[in-house]
Design a protein that fits this description.
The chain has about 575 residues and is α/β, with parallel strands linked by helices.
């Protein structure tokens, strides 16, 4: 007999706010079926490996829903249901989307696992996948046929099934044979393994109440309008912004969706702009580096029509306002409105979104005095044209049902406006904790508030981020933020933009020193070294103790593409970085 496990909560579940705003009392199945009854479609995209072209397959939402109900009957026969998870491994595809919805329909927990970053990492990929599957207690693993040979079961593994074969079995079933899971707002809808830049992977638990609360709050703030809007996404479905924000946002509201895989974008970034232009996209999202790549693609693109694009969400990694502004300027001749810029803040522990700006307000930047910020941890307003000014994007206000505060990290004492401290959040979409890890859960919460580890401040009710608490480099009593160093170095000719890591390490006499590690294809690292040092001194007034150049594709990153500073620092200190001489 299946039972829904009872997970300890670090604080009582917040009282739901009215259902017409959050949908918390609404059963997950009812929400899915309501969306399936709309005339919405999902367009699946497959890129042309040999060029910038692509192929499309458009499927009515109702057809996909019936496919998911058929698969749900098969999942039930495989032992999937409330209280267990279904692990899914495969590229973005119609099959994967069907499996995600089917898992939700039978009341099981969705666990979408990352794909290998590089061919050389297959052994580590299989090992990490197995560890996560076992930690989650998955009832079954559904693997894309192309990856199935990598997963030879060993003792202790759950059953591994080829997704294609399971779908073939499901095709002979009737949709109404899918079992109906009883409503349970505490039942886990998503298990999101996070591998942030400063920590080992952890299983973030997302109950149905959190998922629905965050989806509704995002739709409300973004003024999402099914029938008018069309969401375009190439973000991986194993990452919260792709799974919850874009895919989930379309799925649960009946909004048209265009869905591609990250490999389709990375192989030819110009495709992203073509999808927005040719398929009438109005909403999309990406990390900062994606907009930098899109800027280059714009210079080579043909005629584009971006007049319908109304939300260009930038998030998931630190936002460089100058790089984002460059993209907006480059896209303007194609009809893009710069007011579409949408700088946001979120994290897996909040299901996804924490703060959003108002749609159509564009990118707002807070200019502050860098020396005061570094010395006094105070964001003093500054003249944007001064060389010592640091420009930071405002990330909007908390979504409905969420609260944000800034506190002194050590004591939890509240900080006033413009005083820098640790960002903490609480509310309806905040996780109850980490799976099977009560110690980490307890350490992550303080008096019911989630400690994010992010440094920032509030101004006029809006959130501004400065960096990560664990990444700050303290030199001579000053707080040097690695993001400032990384952005400066990324502007040096010969350095691969978005592939720079700065961190602090023990220098002479035990004092902390700045180290820069950057990817390059430059033929003369010696000349490049001097250019990097000059740029760092100009940016933060402190020369790096060492500059290390590495081959392209070797900097450590998470499965979602975030730079891993702590791992890079560890490799540096162990002298195992593959330096280019």
């Amino acid at each position: 007999m299946r039972t829904t496990p009872s997970f300890p909560h670090p604080f009582p579940s917040p009282d739901p706010i009215p259902s017409d705003r959050t949908g918390l009392p609404v059963a997950l199945r009812a929400r899915l079926e309501a969306a399936a009854g709309s005339p919405a479609t999902v367009t699946f995209i497959a890129g042309d490996p040999g060029g910038d072209g692509y192929r499309t397959e458009t499927v009515p939402r109702a057809v996909l829903h019936d496919d998911a109900r058929r698969l749900g009957a098969t999942l039930d026969a495989l032992g999937a249901g409330p209280g267990v998870s279904v692990a899914l491994v495969g590229p973005t595809s119609r099959a994967l989307v069907t499996a995600i919805e089917a898992t939700w329909l039978v009341g099981a927990t969705v666990l979408v696992l990352p794909l290998p970053m590089r061919l050389g990492s297959l052994e580590a990929f299989v090992s990490q996948t197995r560890a996560r599957v076992r930690h989650a207690g998955a009832a079954v693993v559904l693997v894309d046929d192309a990856l199935a040979e990598l997963f030879t079961p060993v003792p202790g593994d759950p059953p591994v099934r080829r997704l294609g074969a399971v779908l073939a079995d499901a095709s002979g079933r009737r949709p109404d044979h899918c079992p109906t899971a009883r409503p349970d707002p505490e039942r886990l809808a998503v298990l999101q393994y996070t591998s942030g830049s400063t920590a080992d992977p952890k299983g973030v638990m997302i109950p149905e109440r959190c998922l629905l609360a965050n989806l509704d709050a995002m739709a409300e703030r973004a003024a999402l309008e099914p029938g008018r809007d069309r969401i375009v996404s190439w973000l991986p479905l194993y990452h919260d912004m792709g799974l919850v924000g874009l895919f989930g946002g379309a799925l649960f509201t009946g909004t048209d969706l265009v869905l591609a895989g990250p490999q389709d974008f990375l192989a030819a970034p110009a495709r992203w702009l073509s999808w927005m232009s040719e398929l009438g996209g109005t909403i999309t999202a990406g990390p900062n580096f994606a907009y930098a790549l899109a800027t280059r693609a714009l210079r080579r693109s043909g005629r584009l029509d971006l007049r319908r694009w109304r939300i260009a969400l930038n998030g998931a990694e630190p936002i460089d306002p100058d790089a984002f502004a460059t993209f907006l300027t480059a896209a303007a001749p194609a009809g893009m409105d710069p007011a579409a810029a949408f700088c946001a803040y979120g994290m897996a522990e909040a299901t996804l979104a924490v703060t959003f700006p108002e749609p159509g307000s564009g990118m707002a930047v807070d200019a502050v005095r860098r020396p005061v910020l570094e010395r006094d941890r105070y964001a003093a307003p500054a003249d944007p044209t001064e060389p010592t000014t640091r420009r930071l994007p405002r990330l909007g206000r908390p979504l409905a049902g969420l609260e944000v505060r800034v506190v002194e990290p050590a004591t939890g004492q509240w900080r006033r406006d413009r005083e820098v401290g640790e960002v903490e959040i609480r509310g309806t979409s905040v996780t109850p904790g980490y799976l099977h890890d009560p110690a980490t859960t307890a350490a992550t919460f303080r008096d019911g508030w989630l400690r994010t580890g992010d440094l920032g401040y509030l101004v006029d009710g809006e959130l501004v981020l400065c960096g990560r608490l664990k990444d700050v480099i303290i030199v001579g009593g000053r707080n040097i933020y690695p993001e400032d160093v990384e952005r400066a170095v990324a502007g040096v000719d010969g350095i691969r933009a978005g592939n720079v890591i700065a961190f602090g390490t023990a220098g002479r006499r035990g004092r902390e020193a700045v180290v820069v590690v950057a990817e390059t294809r430059h033929d003369d690292p010696a000349d490049l070294h001097d250019a990097v040092v000059r740029r760092v001194v100009d940016a933060v007034g402190v020369p790096p103790a060492e500059v290390v150049f590495v081959r392209p594709g070797t900097l450590p990153k998470t499965s979602s593409g975030k730079l891993q500073r702590s791992l890079c620092r560890s490799r540096y200190e162990q002298s195992v970085l593959e330096a280019v001489r």
